[in-house]
Amino acid sequence: MATSETLPLSDMSPMPLVERLHQWVTTVDHKRLGIMYIAYALLLLVIGGVEATIMRIQLIRPHNDFVSPQVFNRMFTMHGTTMIFFVAMPVLFGFANYLVPLMIGTRDMAFPRLNAFSFWMTAFGGLLLYFSFLGGDGLYGAGNAPDVGWWAYAPLTSPAFSPGHSTDFWTLSLLVSGIGSIGVAINIIATVLCLRCPGMTLGKMPLLPWMNLVMAGLVVLCVSPLTAAQLMLVVDRYLGGHFFDTQAGGSAVIWMHFFWIFGHPEVYVLVLPAFGFVSEIVPVFSRKTIFGYPIMVGATIGIGFISMSVWAHHMFTVGMDAVGNGFFVLTTMAIAVPTGIKIFNWLATMWGGQIQYKTPMLFCVAFLFQFLIAGLTGIMLGAAPFDWQLSGSYFVIAHFHYVIVGGILFALFGAFYYWFPKMSGRMYNEALGKLHFVLFFIGFHLTFDFMHIPGLLGMPRRIYTYEPGRGWDVWNLIVTIGVFFQAAGVLVFIGNLLWSLRSGPMAGSDPWDAWTLEWSTTSPPQAYNFASVPEVRSRRPLWDLKHPEDPDWQYE
Amino acid sequence: MIIQSIRNPQVAMIETRPEEYRVEEDTILDVRVLVGRPLHTRLLRALVPFCGAAFTALAQPAAPLSPTNIFAPVSTPAKWILDLSILVLIVTGAIFTLVFGLLVYAAVKFRKRRVSEACEPAQVYGSTQLELAWTVVPILIVVVLFLTAARVIASIQGARPAGDAIEVTVIGHQFWWEYRYPSQKVVTANELHIPVSDAAHRTPTILHLLSADTDHSFWVPRLAGKTDLIPNHPNTMWVEPHETGLYLGQCAQYCGTQHAKMLLRVYVQTRAEFDRWIQRQSQPAQPAGTVSEGQRTFERTSCINCHTVSGTAADGTFGPDLTHLMSRDTIGSGIAANTPENLRRWIRDPSVFKPGCKMPAMGLSDPEVNAVTQYLETLR
Prior knowledge:
The structure holds 2 protein chains of 2 kinds. Chain A is mainly α. Chain A has a single domain (about 30-555), classed as Cytochrome c oxidase-like, subunit I domain (Cytochrome C Oxidase, Chain A, Up-down Bundle). Chain A contains 16 helices and no strands. Chain A has helices at about 15-25, 30-60, 70-105, 110-135, 165-195, 205-240, 250-285, 295-305, 320-335, 335-350, 360-380, 385-390, 395-425, 430-455, 475-505, 540-545. In chain A, helix 2 (about 30-60) packs parallel to helix 4 (about 110-135) and helix 3 (about 70-105) runs parallel beside helix 5. The longest helix of chain A is centred in the first third of the chain and has 35 residues, at about 70-105. Chain B is an alpha+beta fold. Chain B has 3 domains: about 1-110 and about 130-155, no CATH class; about 165-270, Cupredoxins -  blue copper proteins (Immunoglobulin-like, Sandwich), CATH 2.60.40.420; about 295-375, Cupredoxins -  blue copper proteins (Immunoglobulin-like, Sandwich), CATH 2.60.40. In chain B, the strands form 4 sheets. Chain B has a 5-stranded mixed β-sheet with strand order 3-2-1-5-8. Chain B has a 3-stranded mixed β-sheet with strand order 4-10-9. In chain B, strand 11 (about 330) and strand 12 (about 335) form a beta hairpin. The longest helix of chain B is centred in the N-terminal third of the chain and has 34 residues, at about 75-110. The radius of gyration of chain B is 27 Å and the shape is elongated. Chain B starts with a helix and ends with a helix. Mean pLDDT of chain B is about 85; it is low at about 1-60. The chains are: A mainly alpha, B alpha+beta.
């Protein structure tokens, strides 16, 4: 097995297919599990994208009848659930799995078997969700696939409003994948805290492991209440519980609290690893060290704490009192401070550098620009009275897609291109990479810039059709056109990926002239990562190696 | 600092502000004086470039851009919200302009040029002064925004509006709205009538929000922000409209299959018109007379399990009260004009208009459908 892994993935020894599959299925290697997470997430990204496209075609003009209301409602439920739980989380866990041990100079995660278990829980969770298309009808013939929205607000999930099994599949899939997520998080925490290579104190650890450490802490704190809430919902639906049964004195609002005390930290669960990518890519392509490392770490930890206290800004319209609303305005605005610090520090890192616009850097610069706007629309939504108008409208949809697509997905694409040579041993095609960037950038802005406007003009989310004469038509048309540019971009990306896996030029161990430990080993790395465990004296061990006359540890 | 720079041009603006833009006496917060409409129209043009011309167009007062434009309020909470929104837009617009400018400058200026730069640039590890600056300044901005927002929250949520308030109970149903006026003993559906409030005689409307099934949200953007209707969790909101007219909105919290066709229509009327409307609505359906064929069919089938026609055997409460059906402009919660033809099609099979709605097709024959339609047309 070890010998086969010294070769690029595509050139693996001519073992029978079954044997190769067997190796992947039974692996406990963090790199293989990381790649499996990423591949799984990419597959579901395409499925979730198709669901989004169906919605956008339906909304291209008022009173369209491309799909029925029932199908539309299933599409937005499945799109949201898929993209958050089975695309964004797995892909980020995949990168964390792959990169964290390499960047801290160790040979695997702390608990390799738990790692494999976690992946399979997540994978089967997704299968459960999609099995609802077949099994959701139940004996009631009540319609497949859940249609309760990805928040699944009570009492819409009660048997009275959701007969059949579709909601059960939704609940179970989140329950199962939630266990997987918590497993990964515990693993990342243990790995980062216990397995750093000699010399790497926490203060000398690169920012990506730092941000994943905070992310993992958040996962443990925020996925647990969600998992508990799913169990309570199962009890309500099948064992006569009344937690969320408003007909019997239960509370719909309690579900909202359970969901959003997961839901908002979740945003930071997703965005912190993206910050990690940007914090690695921007310095390398600006040829400068990260500006203000201690304050970057501090801001990350600050975000971790504050993000646990902002959840009810999703609930400004549910009738909290003025004090409650005021508190969550304050915490929501406060989280803008550490986030702003990060943006300024990345900017300062670029300042005075020699910026090389390779594809990863293009995505990261676009990330900075788009994340800035996402943060500012977030401040608008954080001012509770403004939110009373904007909440539940297309403005919110535009805002959080700016965060998740414009921020996280752009950073992810940057990360794909940046670490693709390490994972595959081959370079991607730069021209195709740039084409992907241009198409996706145009598509993103056509779709999500113009999506703010119908929200400001009073268009609520989750409507399968709308009335003409509301001033929404032309914006929806533009938004839908943008989708096709995005889809074209993703196709170019997948094409590039497949072509480069087979025919890309060999990358060598350090194609970007980078500074962190993963670039000190072969591409792809051996099963054991490093022939001998490295020893570091600074945050940029490879800089020290390349510039012995002026090493980093003199200044840190 | 940002506030200061806004204040100066404003001094001149207040003097020249046309009468119709003058804010009310009971100024709720300084910000409202700070940013009157003509100012924000100008400032927006300069400071909110990311949606450019579109944003500016949106901010035109009463622009006929959309009947649900949040930038064209006609009622008190919505106006206060707009004033806060404009402040937030200006602050965020200024931040955007600054940071975006720096980003573009850095991205262009420090790109790698071809030959000259063979060695690595100077490595800068940080700067305490700079990092302190971009920590402290945002904190100050956050404090200002928080305090302003808190004042608006307190003034909207803190107290009942002054004046002779009308109280309406709004009950959200899948997928229609029920309105009850307890003091006036009026029950109606889908079209809310409220009086306009003028300075001499203020008549705000207080809405008590309940739900009969799932969550809903009451959102008429030109009157107020939205508030959810949650079962087992009563909520309250209020509006105080200053202009008569028809204001549109729709359910803003996903409530089930036909969430999209749960439209809101609010008729703001002069006090006299409103009183006349109440007078008419509080009458029973019709003076005692002969029972038509349509009424017999209506009362024989299960229509009366869900619908009320006051003064008759029909006393169901699951569906809209039909006592004065013909006084409404629309049917099906605002989705179709209330014409005999639409009514006939609706009775024959509601799912033609609203697939997934709770009213079943009763399987009536054509003569029966016609008779029921004729009967309903007498409910004025």
